[in-house]
Amino acid sequence: MSPEIALQKAIRGLLISEEIVTFLVPVASILDRNERPNPSPSIIIGEGQSLDENDSISRNLTRVYMDLHVWKKEVSTAGVKLIAGAIRTTLRSKLSPVDGFHFVDSFVQSMRFLRDPDGETSHAVVTVSAKVEELL
């Protein structure tokens, strides 16, 4: 398993276990997929980037950035802002270790709110940053 997949599993596991999120987005609509249209509302686990953290002599630390895309059919951005806020609140909790990976530090680094060109859908991008340690 990679640090990126471990982080994805940990984030999804935390989001689907928290009522503050599942009240706004059904569990079946918190997923990783590449297909449109997305369910409304939904949280789509999206793109990411990872960088080796070379400050550790054991070379077992990776900084992983992961985008969560929030979609909702609405004329404003209020709904996606509410869902993004629930994600931020939930991710303040410590992520549980997954398959030999520990999450040393994780937080919501940024949130962007957009209107889809279709004129009917709002979109938020929530970027999560996590320092992931592989337990050797």
Provide structural commentary.
The chain has helices spanning 3-17, 19-22, 78-90; strands at residues 30-31, 42-52, 61-73, 101-115, 121-134. It contains three helices and five strands, in the order ααβββαββ. It starts with a helix and ends with a strand. The protein has a five-stranded mixed sheet with strand order 1-2-3-5-4. The radius of gyration is 15 Å and the shape is elongated. It is of the alpha+beta class and 136 residues long. It has one domain: STM4215-like (2-Layer Sandwich). 30% of the residues are buried.
Task: Produce the secondary structure layout.
Layout: H1 3-17, H2 19-22, E1 30-31, E2 42-52, E3 61-73, H3 78-90, E4 101-115, E5 121-134
Parallel strand pairs: 1-2
Antiparallel strand pairs: 2-3, 3-5, 4-5
